[in-house]
Structures are given as C-alpha cells and as structure tokens.
Amino acid sequence: MAKKLARKAAAKAAPKRKARGARKYVYFFGGGKADGNRHMKDLLGGKGSGLAEMTNAGLPVPPGFTISTEACTLYYREGRKVPSTVDREMLANLAKLEKAAGATLGKVENPLLVSVRSGAKFSMPGMMDTILNLGLNDRTVEGLKARTSNGRFAYDSYRRFIQMYGAVVLEIPKDAFEHALEHVKEARGVRLDTDLDEAAWRDVVARFKDVVRSRTKRDFPQVPLDQLRGARDAVFRSWNNARAIEYRRIYEIPDSIGTAVNVQMMVFGNTGNRSATGVGFTRNPATGAKEFYGEFLVNAQGEDVVAGIRTPQPISELENVMPHAYKELRQITTRLERHYKDVQDFEFTVQDDRLFMLQTRNGKRTGYAAVVIATDLVDEKLISPKDAVLQVDPESVSQLLAPVFEPKAWQALPVTTRGLPASPGAASGQVVFTADDAVEWTRQGKKVILVRKETVPDDIHGMFVSQGVLTATGGMTSHAAVVGRQMGKPSVVGAGALEISESGRRFSVDGATVREGDFVSFDGLTGEVKLGQVGTRPSEILQVVAGDMKPAASDLYRRFDRLLTWADKFRRLGIRANADQPDQAETAYALGARGIGLCRTEHMFFGEGRIPIVQRMILADNESDRRAALAELLPLQRKDFYGVFKAMHGSPVTIRTIDPPLHEFLPKREDLMVEVATMEAKGTTGRELDEKRALLRRVEQLHEFNPMLGHRGVRLGITYPEITEMQTRAILEAACQLAKEGTSVVPEIMIPLVGLVKELRDQKAVVDRVAADVMREQGVRVKYLVGTMIEVPRGAMTAEEIAHEAEFFSFGTNDLTQLTFGFSRDDIGKFLGSYQDKKILEKDPFATIDTIGVGELVELGVQRGRRGRPDLKVGICGEHGGDPSSIHFFAKAGLDYVSASPYRIPVARLAAAQAALHVKVGD
Ligand code: ADP
Ligand code: MG
Ligand code: MG
Questions:
Q1: Annotation says 479 is catalytic
Q2: Residue list, ligand 1 pocket, CB within 6 Å
C-alpha cells in the first residue's frame, strides 16, 4: 500500500461539487437511490460505498447518509471541530432521512432511531465500536414501547444505547456497565441476557444512567441531536485512537485518509424470536471452499454475534428457523458475489421475518483461501485469469509456503481439545497470556503462542509477533479469527474447554494445567490443540517443489501453479533469485525464478572445510603463498558454480566477486586475544602459540574502524587481483565444462561496490584476460558478460560513464540505502522505532525502498546507464526485490528484472504481474 499510490488514488476520485459550487460532504442513500456508489471508497469509506451500491441495486438496505472522509480531514484541520457547513448539510440529510423513514428523531410518538458507524477506505476492525439505537431517551423509549407493544425490547434497546454511547463517546470503561448488568442478572438469578424482562431492563437502564452521572458528573444526554453530534465527532476522534494508529502502522495505511461516518436508520434483530442478526461470507474465508459460511443469533442485536457473549449458530440453521429470510439472503449474497466478482463478507439483520442488508465488502481471506477462490472463480467464469491475478494479495501467497507439522510427531500427541479452525497453519510455542508478554518474550528469541479468552483490538501487537493465537471464546468471525486470517497468523478460536486464568498465568484443560512458558501446539486448519512442542516441516507446495510429492497429489500446488503461470503472462519484469548454493537455486527455479540475480561467492567460502583454506589465503603475506591457497579453493568454487549453472537450466546467472572485508573470515580479535593470553599464562610455547600470535597480528592489521566503508568489494579485487583471477577461472571453467556437455550458460560476472569507472576497468581487464586464457585452454568459447553493482551513490551519479564499461547493472539497494541515508543497516534497529513513532520515517527503508531518495538514484542510474549503453541490462538484487510495493516502483523505473530470495519468488511473480497491470495497491 505505497503511500504514493494511495495519494494518487485519492486525487483521482475527485470530490463532487454541489450545484452552487460548494463542496459536498454528505451523501444520502435510500429509497432505491444513492448519491454514492462502489467506486467512491476514498470519499465514503468501504462501508458507505457498499451501502450506496446495495441501495442502487435495489436491495433492502435501511436508509441513511454518509458523512465523507473529507469532513474528517476538515475536522482535524479545524482543531477537532466539525465546521458548521458540514453540520448544516448533515441536518438537511437528516430531514431527508426522517422523510424516507417516516419517523422523526426525538419525536415521542414515532421516534427515528439510527446507528452511527465508522468506515474508512480500508476496513479497520475494532477502530470504533458502532453506536446503535441513537435517538432514544427517557421519553422516546416509551414511544418505542407503545409502537411495538414490546417494553422488554424498548428498554433492552435503550440500555444498549446508553452502554455503547457511554463507552464510545463518553469514554467510560466498559466494565462499569458490565458490572451493573451482572449485578442485576445475579440479583434476579438469571444467566442469559435474553432471560431478563422489561422490569429488569428498566432497572439496568437506571443503573447505567447512574454510571454515566457518577463518571461524567452529568446526566446522560437526552437531546437526540446532541447525541448525534456527539457520536459523529467520536467517530472522527476514533481515527486517532491508539489501536487505530497501531493497525495503520502494521498494515501501512496512510494516516491522512481519514474515516467516514455512516448514519443509518435502525432495524431490529432483537424484537423477539422472529428476529435475528448475523454475519457471513459467500465462501469459506479460511479454506476457500465454496460454501455459505457464517453465524447468526436469534433475538439479538449488532455485535452480539462477534462479541462472544452468546455462542452463535451456524448460518445453515437459519434455513430451519427463518426459511424465507434465509432464501432471500442466499439470493442476495449470490447476486452480490456476482456483482462484485469476489467473495462477499456481509452483515444482515432480520426484523420480524424481514431481511435487511447492513454491510457488504470483499471478504478478507487467508492466503490458502485466496488462491483457491481465485482459481475457482476463473473456473466458474466469473472472472478472467487477469482478474484472478489482480485479486490475490502477493504477500499472502507466502503463507502457502509456511511450515506444517511433522506428521508423525503431531499424530503421536493426543488431541487435548478442539477449537474453531479460524486461520490455517501450524503453530507451536510457549504459552503467554498477554500481548505485551508476547512481544517481550519474542524479543528474547522465544517462540510464543498467545492464549487469550478472546482477543481485543489492543492485542494486535502481540498477535503480530506470536506463532499463533488461541482463544477460549468467540466464533469464526470473532476478532481473533478475522485479524488472524488477515495477518496469515495460525489461529484457533473458541476452544471452550480452556479455563483461562489470565491473572494466574495458567489455564486448565482436560484435567491438565498449563502454565506460562509451557509448550502448546495447534493446527489452524483443523482446530486441534495439543500440549507439547511439535516440529514443523515444509508446506505441501515446498514438498512438491522438492520433489517429495507429485504435483498431481496436491490440489493446492496445482492451483498455486496455475495462478502464478497466469501472472507470468502479464508481468514484464523478469524474476531471478538470490541464491548461492545449487539446492537453493533448484528451489528457486522450481518456484519460478528464471535466473540468478545474485550469487554471493563468499558464502561458498563458508562451506565445509573451506574456512581454513580461506584463512590461509588471507594470512599469506606474499603473493605466491596466496596463490597456493587460491589454487586449493579453485576446484571447490568451480564445483559450486557448475551446480548453480546446472540448476538454472541455461538461465542467466550473475556471480558477484568477493565482497566482504576479509576479517569476516577470521576469528574475532577479542577472542584471539583471550586465547593467546590464556596460552601464555599456562606457559604454552611452540608452534601452536606462534600460529595464534601470527593470526592475531594479521587480524590486527586487518582491523578497520568502519569495515562497511573499508577494504571491501572492488577494492579487494584491486589490491589482490589474484582473487578475481581465481574466481573468474572457476566461473569460466565451469561454464566451459557445461558447454562441452551441451548446456549453454551465460555467466554474468559482477564487480561490487564500484563508484569509479576506473575501478571497473581495472577488474574487467583481469576478467577478460583470464577468460581468454581459460577458453583457449578448454578449446571452447562461451559468452559471458562483465557488469557491476550500483550500490555506491557515486556509481549511480556516474552511471553513464560506468555503462561504457559495464554490460549490465544490478542495483544493490541494501548498500545503496545504507550509503544514501548514512544509516548502518546493522544498527538502524536502535533508532528506527523512534523514527517511526515520531513519523520521521513511515517504513523501514531496508524493507521497502525509499522511492523519493534512494529511488531517485535508481531512476537516475537507469537513465544515465542506458544513455551510456542503450541495451544495458538492469536489475535489482537487494532485499527490496521481494517486496511488493518496491517491485511496483522497480517496474515503473524500467528495470529488466528483480531478484529475490527463493521463498519470495512467488510473491515477486504476482507483484510483478500486478505492477504490469497497473493495479492500485490496497484496492
Ligand atoms: P463494524 O465496522 O465493526 O463491522 P458496523 O458499523 O458494521 O461495525 O456495525 C456492527 C453491527 O451493528 C452490524 O453488523 C449490525 O449488526 C449492527 N448495525 C449497524 N447499523 C445498524 C442498523 N442501522 N440497524 C441494525 N443493526 C445495525
Ligand atoms: Mg465493530
Ligand atoms: Mg460491520
């Protein structure tokens, strides 16, 4: 959700103007016609635009109006005050609503009641609780009772209103109301809310009003218009509450877009047993299966279904209880799915057997479900392969590569209990009971499972770091379930057998007691929970990729493969992998990489038994000793290159010559000093001590104050050309060998850290000379390229000149970011948090490319480079190559390919396709 893109999208949906040229801030919907529509999410929020669209489609939607996100912006601009123009427009729309509803706000005989709901462009669960039944006061409640001849209903509605308004607008802690309600229930010996009668609810209302009076030193507001303004302003205020801010930070939603306010006539699911309220999906959002999916409660209102107070019934049972409403709901939601061409997440209420739709939106889903749904919708001819490619969030496909349990170990443990399978994936870790502990323990390197009675929006930071989330109450649409699916976090909810004592930091289940720090494991796809730790293993996709499972045996793999093959048709960027070993290269190839964008040769030096040889090379104080050590390394590197080339089946392979400072291959200076001192103290003498001392001396010689800016990259090749010679020889010998075997490969030899064209010229001469020697010796000719990494700002600035020498560029955006900002990427953790809190930086520039600064250097490097050499091949091999929003940027900058780590390849393929199709990220 790149900020730039969001901004652009906002600019596009230019606000409509009213006749007199004044800006319009309030949009009406009702009577089969709406001012807005589905394309106005920026202005009306997702909820408002959905209500407008459903109204236009003639669906049964209670009338109302939406106050736009621009009014929210104004509210903040005016110092948290709604301007009078907006207020006047709201009053005009209220009058219209009263007419459409045939009821009047505050009129005793026939009171209009409304809900006040927040709704931003991106859904933000739990940003603000909805206020229902607004318009009730001590007099209108009697009017409602008289009209419905249902005093129980009227007073239940009134107490709900006081409760919601009290919590949300007056900011009274929720427990205050809950205590008062519990008290009345206990006094009457009643367990369920539904068992309370009118007298009881009257008692509750009186107590709630006392709570308000004692907490705010004022009476509960009785004037409906004051109530409405209070609720409206609270929605705007909620945009900047802590959990909304946290949510936006995690999902990278811009702070500037604001929320809309929806005011809508109430319909009632709590008038009795012919009424109900519910939520659902047109397909299963966890697995993607094509099944009507959801929950409802008879005689209930609003959030009762998701609050976990009463356990809801599966939606299939609605067919038995209210067959007529069920049939209509099926018809409407099927129609909505066809209309939006995507799975719909809907909310409805049945009032006295009459169905009303209250919300519809594209349903959030797990990565599994996304792939299943997209391929199914194509098969059903509802969408095209192109739509399918646009529909799936690239990041979410990485979930399909997440580990699953080691089946034997998993089956060996008994099932302790079961919950609802809310979000798939295998989770195993140590139990913690609070979100803060989850964060703290994770920081200490532990893997944790967050166990809660139910999660609340404040838990989101803890959910984010946990391996999985396990709750005791709540249904498939509870907070933990919704957020878990969205994060791709394995979640099991509503495991009712857990008796949790959060204060005691333990829970008991099935006769066992589990304490903080004990291990639990669960499977988010089946809902099974087990005590103990279970190892995990690669997902089905990775098993197929590794050849351990046949593609035909994995439905998931085949769908995944179809989707990504479609993506490949649309993308223009090539996809390569960063891989150093033949097995990594094979995985990357199987996941769709067609080429290696970065093979870090020094990683090969860490291979088994190699470090002593490398150290001998480094310790050599003369060229001939150094050459002797290099000669030992040569066959090893040649073998590695041969393997990598082979794994790529002739696709290009970019090999970077040695890059890190040499001391990285030697023991730490401090360790050596201790060793030498210990040996001396023990009186050790002889060869061993001499060698250690020599090593320490060399380490001290190599010591640098600032190694990242020191003797590394091309600078090594210039001072020790024999290293470049050996590496070139290994590369070319491997290529020649393959050529003789009939596989042609085109090695791309990449010189790192070049800032001066003469550096590259120097090294290119070495490469060309050795390559010519090898080809003469081998008696074959192979094509190879010599190029450079652009990772020093001076390299980007002088790209034109450098391109005269370089046959290709690869942007090393890790170093380029480091050197452009002057941020050490190993130390940024110390201050990045503060930078983000203070909004100095929104994102970690090492994860998502800084398009403005570093990106400018990339664009400039591409332009100037191609001026120097029109057919210059340009790629990027930093971490950013696997980040979807960075990929959008690279596509725009005109790069030829991106290179990402093997497991990010599927994400990159999909993101590259979306970039080519110019999708607005986040829509
Ligand atoms: P959220 O964004 O958290 O889903 P909503 O604004 O959709 O919040 O409101 C939550 C619930 O409140 C709805 O699902 C619905 O059950 C109830 N609700 C909202 N408006 C009305 C209304 N006008 N009449 C009846 N119920 C309503
Ligand atoms: Mg809500
Ligand atoms: Mg809703």
A1: yes
A2: 62, 115, 117, 130, 132, 264-267, 277, 302-303, 347, 349, 358-359
